[in-house]
Amino acid sequence: MYLRIEAICVPSTEWAQKKQVHDACIAADVPVPIEVKRFFGHEEPTKGPVMGLGVMNDSGDLETSHHLALSEEPDLTEMENGILIKVADLPKGTHTIRCVISQD
Fold this sequence. Notes:
Layout: E1 2-9, H1 13-28, H2 34-39, E2 50-56, E3 62-64, E4 70-72, E5 83-85, E6 94-102
Antiparallel strand pairs: 1-2, 1-6, 2-3, 4-5
């Protein structure tokens, strides 16, 4: 099991344009251009750009990306694990934080 933390940001003009192309191709039942697929990391685009901030694995180890917004919560008992999210250090344009728990 692990916990993944992501920042959902305000779409840039480029993101919005690529999303329009993606959606138009899907609606027309034609292949999505490879450059659009690459832009979205070969995944379906969401409501806004998603930036992975970090993952806490089942051992309680926190793996962070290049963002400084996450750190381990130091003031917990040895039976607890926690993450601090520093709002001021979130990527520019972040409007939502998504926390996903996976049983994988």
